[in-house]
Amino acid sequence: MIHTDYGYEVRSGNRVLCVRLYGEIDHHSASVLRKDLDELLLRERPLRLVFDLSRIDFMDSSGLGLLMGRYRLMKELGGVTAIERANQGTMKMLHLAGMERFFEIGRG
Hints:
This protein is α/β, with parallel strands linked by helices. Helix content is 40%, strand content 35%. The chain has a 5-stranded mixed sheet, with helices on one face. Helix 1 links the parallel strand 2 (16-25) and strand 3.
């Protein structure tokens, strides 16, 4: 069995939900996070979702899929999604995947 270290922390207020992902986001962790985050978004119904990626150690295409799926759900809910504080490697992957077409991406 493969086990990766991953998780998330949540802050909310004023219809903004900030989710700090941490650890390794791969196929296994993305499927667990997807379920948790979808339940959270459907319960909270924020107008803005902000992913803080400052504590991501590794992310593969499953991580990109996780982000895109939450983007789509937020769009259905009438909200917007942003990505902040991605490290240099993660930022490079986001740009190579063309994610700036969908997300507000900030370094700060």
